[in-house]
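Human
Can I borrow your eye for a moment on a structure tokenisation matter? Give me a protein, with the fold worked out from its sequence. Write it directly below this note and I will take it from there.

Assistant
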Amino acid sequence: MSATSQLDPTARFLMGPGPSDVHPRVLKAMATPLIGHLDPQFIAIMDDVMDMLRRLLQTKNEVTFPVSATGSAGMETCFVNLLEPGDEALVCVNGVFGNRMCDNVERGGAKLVRLDAPWGSIIEPAEVKKTLEGCSPKLVAIVHAETSTGVLQPLEEISKIVHDAGALLLVDTVTSLGGTEILVDEWGIDAVYSGTQKCISAPPGLSPVSFGPAAVEAMDKRKTRVQSWYLDLSMVRKYWAGAKRAYHHTAPISMVYALYEALSLIFEEGLEARFARHRRNHELLRQGLEELGFEFLVPSEYRLPMLNAVKIPAGVDDAAVRRRLLDEYNIEIGGGLGDFSGKVWRIGLMGCSCTQNHVNMLLAALRTIMKM
């Protein structure tokens, strides 16, 4: 494609770790005429988006809105606002995205304490409790849905342990939000961030965040300014959630339209029906892959329904098969990361990509390529 040719990429079936397929209504919403980012009509849309995000996260947190950047910026927003130089933070690491949390802690000048678990396994509550006996962190950070391994992390017991130790609980829900239950208030999550491009099925570009009362209090008691001007919630939240909206930046208006429509579709389907759809199609995929000789990386009780990590069978060429899926069938799946590179495939069933048709297409293509 040359720089002067018309933009017309080949359509794909997105079954990797993200982004996911987007509903035509969401794409249409992005073509809605622009209005100003302080227009009363846009303020009303912002209010609706915040309300729907609260419903999706099952929270009453006032400070709940999408950061104007991708999920990685949502992660950084949480760390730079909640931690000051010299603070201590415990990060639970069982995959790539726990490591990214560690990097955020250290770049902000805070003291990092790591709790590592083998990739493909959960963080055990007993290990969290044991680690907390030897440190006094301001916050504990953990990934709910580890995209690099397909692990779904139980949170309720760990939340109690963290709060008993006097710390805040920060949770990454980038891959889980919109595909499985997240109960921010009931589980005692103090701060959470996510992304729009996975189970919400909007394009990448916004990062929903939510901060509970204890997290807001910690931000209000800061002794130093937030190191990032763009992500400083003492200013940004006055634009999104202030009684009188104060200009901070020009919001990505078309992306907010897209998120509005994607969230509307979620609630038209219903949360329970949506979560059940993800579980049902995961089981259909599991059965088909196991018949082809694939083995899942994660035990069934801790397995993500929307991100399926499977071991590549002996004799199967990782890159060659994924390339044929893309070139011959327009199906994208993801390869492994880190130590799992070349050993694991990551197959996404997220949002609009989570359909029986997607599963059947992939299984049929694999049977042909692998001649089974």
